[in-house]
């Protein structure tokens, strides 16, 4: 069975690493994480990519959370299946995500892919550079930042420290690796292969 893997670009390095380490021969395709700022554009980009993939592959595994309303319903016509999880934070952090949310519901999470695009996606994309008051309004209910380090990007501690200072929030770094995402991908690929 020929399987393609379509993932959010925020997880590109992690997905590529896992597939290469397992020697999974699947076609990998990624969509820009910045499209999350424009849901209609994200929907169109996913539809275009899925349309192209469905003619060359038996199944497409989609590494996205519920990033669009009714994501699973949206994927069904393309013979595509999504990994389990509401969002990539759960996929990367695994049970640690839920533990942290229970301890401190006001947690703002970062993963390496988001850390790299924070300035373009959040600061510029949401206009925080032009309207500084927006930063206060958007982040006033957060109590901390937790950075899920997947250990694939080198040292991003300095960048997440800058982000924490910019948002005036305490920072906690969790070295989670890719084990939770790896387990999600393996489970989803096993399921997709039998459908």
SSE topology:
Layout: E1 3-8, H1 12-22, E2 27-31, H2 39-54, E3 59-63, H3 71-75, E4 80-82, H4 88-93, H5 95-103, E5 107-110, H6 112-116, H7 118-124, H8 132-139, E6 144-149, H9 157-167, E7 171-175, H10 179-194
Parallel strand pairs: 1-2, 1-3, 3-4, 5-6, 6-7
Care to describe what's here?
The chain has 195 residues and is an alpha/beta fold. The chain is built from ten helices and seven strands. It has helices spanning 12-22, 39-54, 71-75, 88-93, 95-103, 112-116, 118-124, 132-139, 157-167, 179-194, and strands spanning 3-8, 27-31, 59-63, 80-82, 107-110, 144-149, 171-175. The strands form two sheets. The protein has a four-stranded parallel β-sheet with strand order 2-1-3-4, with helices on both faces. Strand 3 (59-63), helix 3 and strand 4 form a beta-alpha-beta unit. The longest helix is centred in the N-terminal third of the chain and has 16 residues, at 39-54. The model has no long low-confidence stretch (mean pLDDT 93).
